[in-house]
Design brief:
Elements: H1 2-21, H2 28-46, H3 51-61, H4 67-80, H5 88-101, H6 107-110
Helix pairs in contact: 2-4, 2-5, 3-4
Amino acid sequence: MKAKILILGLCWFSPLAYAETDPRVNSAEECAAFADLALVASTLAKHGIAKDQSAKMLPDMYELDTDNAQEIARRILDTAYGKQQAEPRTFAGIVGNSCIRHQGRFNAVLGAKI
């Protein structure tokens, strides 16, 4: 009986936990906007612009009004400034295509805990 309650509890709360760690967008247009943000962030990183400076610039270029948008932008920026980075256009394509392929979710390309 306790096992059933535990499993039921995990089933009830796991979608909420998943939603917390997997920010998502609702349209292909938003995927394209974040792919563009990935292009800009990756280009800034490639040319040696400090990460904190890039973080200050992105809100001037993109509407990052929601916590969800800010979290996605933060993850993209963290990935763009990571150790093994693809060329900016390649990175942007990966972000955009993955977003569309995974129905607006970013964990597949940006990871759950970046």
